[in-house]
Amino acid sequence: MKPISKFFLTSFIALITFKSLAVASEAPNTAQLGADGFSVEMNDPRYTKLKTYLVEMKDGVLTPAELVVPEKTKFRLVVRNLGNKPAEFESNQLRQEKVLFMNAETTLVIIPLDVGTYDYFDDFAPTTHGKIVVKAKD
Amino acid sequence: MGQTIFVVCRESIEALLVIGILYAWMDGRADAATGKKWLFAGVVAGFGLAALLTLTLIGVSDLLGGESRAWFEIGMLTFASALIVQMVLWMRVHGRTLKKELEAGLEKSLQGKKSWWSVFFLAMIAVGREGSETVMFLYGSLLQLGTLASYVSFFSAVAIGLALAMVMFYALQLGGKFISWKWFFKVTEIMLLFLGSALFLAASEKLLGGPLAATDLPAWLYSNVWDMSSVLSDSSILGNLLASLFAYRSQPIGWDLAVLGAYWVTVIAILKWQMKAKVTPTVQATAEQA
């Protein structure tokens, strides 16, 4: 590889790393559970109508590995790919499938769900399986 | 490397299955050679479609927007499902007469061309849909490569993945050779109709999760009617395969059943109507021949 393209590639990767670090430092994190036992919602001024949760994918690693949401409530998932390779957010049970290029972000609206456990994973690296746990509201 | 083999093999198998069913369906027919050319052309066009779709996924997707992309996918899936039904109907009429026409030395009817267009579009959509994800994955992985060794390993992984998928494709074709043709025709016909239902259901689910997401539909459409995920989960390999070929759902919601019900009622009604309508022209044709 020519030095100049090496330079661009390195700066590109550096930029991605920097950007993902910036993203990672954003609070609050959906990975945590709130006092009510449900996952903490994402605070994003773009999405105010629906409950919104953040899912991050990084080369097969899913954050959070377990998302707890209330039953029979429509919600939005913001999915980000922070990995070095493309990722595919997939859930067989939720019938969702969305490909994400490196550093891409997408949103999905999930229809109201019944109580139960639903799978989700990175279809390009299906090593770890995440879970969406739907609980009854008290 | 293992990941690349896995992705290439799995994604191409899904497309190859559709092509395999089309191929097997044509194989027993008298004019199969023409049909196979159309099928091949469809596969080539599918690669073009995959490349175009990939462009919208990686860069242009912001321009195209999520909404119009969703509509495009819904349209493509619905179109493919309608094509399948139309093809099966056409085959039922011409399956018998075509052989007679050819035996009598008659030229192929013009309607034959129309059916080949369906084969072309179906192959194109099958390859384009599965292919775009693979192309994007490969392109993204390609960007990460640096050394010559990593390039070699990458391209051999792609080749192995493709080869594995081809082996399975031939296994499927061989399987078809051991079965009597009459039976195989019936089976592929039913499989095609089921594939049509799976595509139609996928389109409707994209509609429900995309353009209809903002609308609040009656609650029964969203709730699970039954749950047999403990028997055969959608996540298992078999369950997943059944889902994409036969519209299997382990936890169907009211919407799924309503959509599938509508599909099958329509298809059966058209088949019934066709059987009734067919009686008259056949009688006329025999009268003319006499």
UniProtKB/TrEMBL annotation, chain A:
Signal peptide: 1-24
Sequence ranges assigned to domain EfeO-type cupredoxin-like in this UniProt record: 51-134
Keywords: Signal
InterPro entries linked: Cupredoxin, EfeO_Cupredoxin
Pfam families with a match to the protein in the record: Cupredoxin_1
Identification of the protein by name: Cupredoxin domain-containing protein
From TrEMBL, chain B:
Keyword Transmembrane tagged: yes
Residue intervals passing through the bilayer: 6-26, 38-58, 70-90, 116-139, 151-171, 183-203, 253-271
PANTHER family: IRON TRANSPORTER FTH1, PLASMA MEMBRANE IRON PERMEASE
Name this polypeptide is given: FTR1 family protein
Keywords, comma-separated and alphabetical: Membrane, Transmembrane, Transmembrane helix
Membrane-topology descriptor: Multi-pass membrane protein
InterPro entries to which the protein is assigned, alphabetical: FTR1/Fip1/EfeU
Cellular compartment(s): Membrane
Keyword hit for Glycosyltransferase: no
Entry similarity comment: Belongs to the oxidase-dependent Fe transporter (OFeT) (TC 9.A.10.1) family.
